[in-house]
Amino acid sequence: MKNEIEELKEEIAELKEKIKYFEIDPDEIEEEFDYWLDDMYPEIFGHLASYILKEIDPIQYDELRNDYINSMEIEDYQPYKDLENELEDLENELEELENGE
In sequence order, which ranges of 1-101 are alpha helices (DSSP H)? Predict the structure, then answer.
């Protein structure tokens, strides 16, 4: 039981580090960003704004995507929420073990 508690404490510490240094991966948010960009600007000659910007000025596209990411509330980002939920579950499990439940 003591080993299990120590293992849980290590897992919790590792998870807290992941949460502390969590960053949104621009590649993971690309589809959401494209949808937002296409919703903001009309089609031009039958092409979506995200497609045009990627093809004509990929550097500007990346800069806008980074601005979009920076404007996001990280607490609302599902992968971050998943880490927080996992942490909460581990902390509850640890509490139960320590209380002998």
Answer: 2-20, 26-40, 49-56, 58-71, 78-98
